[in-house]
Design brief:
- Helices cover 0% and strands 48% of the residues.
- It contains no helices and twelve strands.
Length: 147
């Protein structure tokens, strides 16, 4: 049996080359788009956009692998992978974004980072940062200094 370049979960929805669809696709498995889709894709599985595939709308999936053209808002719970012939214009929301050399991306990406990892956490109001007081002169009042 010939091995394909993507995970086969037995539930594949195919939009073949030459097919144009305006509307919404809602499935649980893998969606492969080699045609043109103007609308939304919602799946718990993977979305694969082939070299001839074009998507305009939004994609909500576990993961996306594209070598085609996408003008959309992409939301993935896993990874988004743009292969060398891919063009993506829009927003990408995912924890992992991979791009091969030659892939094109214009837009905004959000990978869930809310701050620098080395930023110190805020201390509660009753706890003081002792580092702020280091190397400051201390004056003793009412007592002689013992040397």
């Amino acid at each position: 049996m010939k091995k394909t370049g993507y995970g086969d979960d037995g539930n594949i929805t195919l939009l073949a080359k030459g097919v144009e669809l305006k509307g919404e696709i809602r499935v649980d498995g893998t969606v492969r788009i080699d045609g043109r889709l103007e609308g939304d894709v919602h799946t718990k599985g993977e979305v694969i956009v082939g070299e001839d595939g074009v998507v305009k709308g939004s994609i909500h999936a576990d993961s996306l692998v594209s070598s085609g053209k996408i003008k959309a808002t992409v939301t993935a719970t896993g990874k988004v992978q743009l292969l060398k012939t891919a063009i993506l214009i829009g927003e990408v929301h995912c924890p992992t974004l991979l791009m091969e050399e030659g892939a094109k991306f214009q837009g905004v990406s959000d990978m869930g980072v809310t701050g620098w990892p080395e930023e110190a956490q805020r201390l509660p109001g009753n706890v003081r940062d002792m580092n702020a007081h280091r190397n400051k002169p201390v004056a003793l009042i009412g007592r002689e200094v013992d040397l």
